[in-house]
């Protein structure tokens, strides 16, 4: 099952089987209730909701490649927003039961970059997704992400102009090579290759001890609450501080020159080249800080 293919790494041997690409179309708005078919291009869904209808709730997810049907699978998120914030239900085909089911948001198992659909990848085929957006008279949702708040000139928690929020996110993503550009090899990637690690309190304490040992007592790794007794830290920070700086690599697969989380194809990289670099980064971070990075893209025919 293939959506937009943007969060995927396929082995060099290819896939010996049938691939079904979801290409359904549909964009239905009832007040602030938006239902989109799984095959709709996600970035275009955001643009229509924001620019054509002035609706808030997904504006900070502008510029993310892929299909609308993939967003609940991954619980796509960026700049302080996740689709879990606004999804009300997902209609899917249950391959095990052989029937179409409607899954309310409360039963989707949403977590950081995770859902019940991702947990059982061979069971559900997302058909359409319904969101409850909001009409804030041209204002965005509350700005949760500090970098976005600074760029918009507002304090975290305040609202900004809705269209300005979308445009700001596109500029921020472009600056990190996260908006597709055929001429810019820094955008030839599967996006962020590793998820941000979520640590228990004990793991976080051990991690901080390793940071102090390696970088000194003044080092301050990012830390965000991630649920009761859990702390999320930054994969990009870990990669950089482990010595894998922007542009790292000597072959056709290298870290992006704009963002250490993206592993890029400089023009002739194979999947083997990409995964060799990924393993080097993963091993280096584990050795330096005792944290094992986990790949975000789905692997087909290969493993990290």
Kindly describe this structure.
The protein folds into two domains: 8-175, Uridine Diphospho-n-acetylenolpyruvylglucosamine Reductase, domain 3 (2-Layer Sandwich); 185-300, UDP-N-acetylenolpyruvoylglucosamine reductase, C-terminal domain (Uridine Diphospho-n-acetylenolpyruvylglucosamine Reductase, domain 1, Alpha-Beta Complex). It is built from eight helices and 15 strands. It has helices spanning 42-52, 71-74, 116-119, 146-152, 162-175, 201-215, 235-241, 271-289, and strands at 8-10, 27-30, 33-37, 77-78, 81-82, 87-94, 99-104, 124-132, 189-192, 198-200, 224-225, 230-232, 253-255, 262-265, 298-300. It has a five-stranded antiparallel β-sheet with strand order 2-3-8-6-7, with no helix packed on it. The chain is globular. 37% of the residues are buried.
SSE blueprint and pairings:
Elements (H helix, E strand, L loop, with lengths): L7 E3 L16 E4 L2 E5 L4 H11 L18 H4 L2 E2 L2 E2 L4 E8 L4 E6 L11 H4 L4 E9 L13 H7 L9 H14 L13 E4 L5 E3 H15 L8 E2 L4 E3 L2 H7 L11 E3 L6 E4 L5 H19 L8 E3 L4
Parallel strand pairs: 1-15
Antiparallel strand pairs: 2-3, 3-8, 4-5, 6-7, 6-8, 9-14, 10-12, 11-12, 13-14
């Amino acid at each position: 099952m293939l959506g937009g293919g943007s969060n995927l790494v396929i082995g060099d041997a290819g896939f010996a089987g049938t691939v079904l690409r979801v290409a359904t179309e549909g964009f239905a708005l009832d007040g602030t209730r938006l239902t989109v078919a799984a095959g709709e291009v996600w970035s275009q869904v955001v643009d229509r909701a924001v620019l054509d209808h002035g609706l808030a709730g997904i504006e900070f997810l502008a510029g993310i490649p892929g299909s609308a049907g993939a967003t609940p699978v991954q619980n796509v998120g960026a700049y302080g927003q996740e689709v879990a914030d606004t999804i009300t239900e997902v209609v899917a085909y249950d391959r095990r039961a052989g029937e179409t089911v409607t899954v309310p948001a409360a039963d989707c198992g949403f977590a950081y970059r995770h859902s019940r659909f991702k947990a059982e990848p061979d069971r559900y085929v997302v058909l359409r997704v319904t969101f409850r957006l909001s009409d804030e008279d041209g204002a965005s949702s509350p700005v949760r992400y500090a970098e976005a708040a600074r760029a918009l000139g507002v304090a975290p928690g305040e609202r900004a102009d809705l269209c300005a929020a979308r445009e700001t996110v596109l500029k921020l993503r472009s600056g990190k090579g996260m908006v597709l550009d055929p001429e810019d090899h820094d955008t030839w990637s599967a996006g962020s290759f590793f998820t941000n690690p979520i640590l228990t309190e004990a793991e976080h304490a051990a991690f901080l001890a390793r940071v102090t040992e390696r970088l000194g007592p003044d080092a301050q790794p990012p830390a965000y609450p991630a649920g009761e007794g859990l702390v999320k830290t930054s994969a990009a920070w870990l990669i950089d501080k482990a010595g894998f700086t922007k542009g790292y690599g000597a072959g056709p697969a290298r870290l992006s020159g704009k963002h250490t989380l993206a592993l890029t194809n400089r023009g002739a990289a194979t999947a083997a080249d990409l995964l060799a670099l990924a393993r080097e980064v993963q091993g280096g971070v584990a050795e330096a800080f005792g944290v094992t990075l986990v790949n975000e893209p789905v692997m087909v025919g290969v493993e990290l």
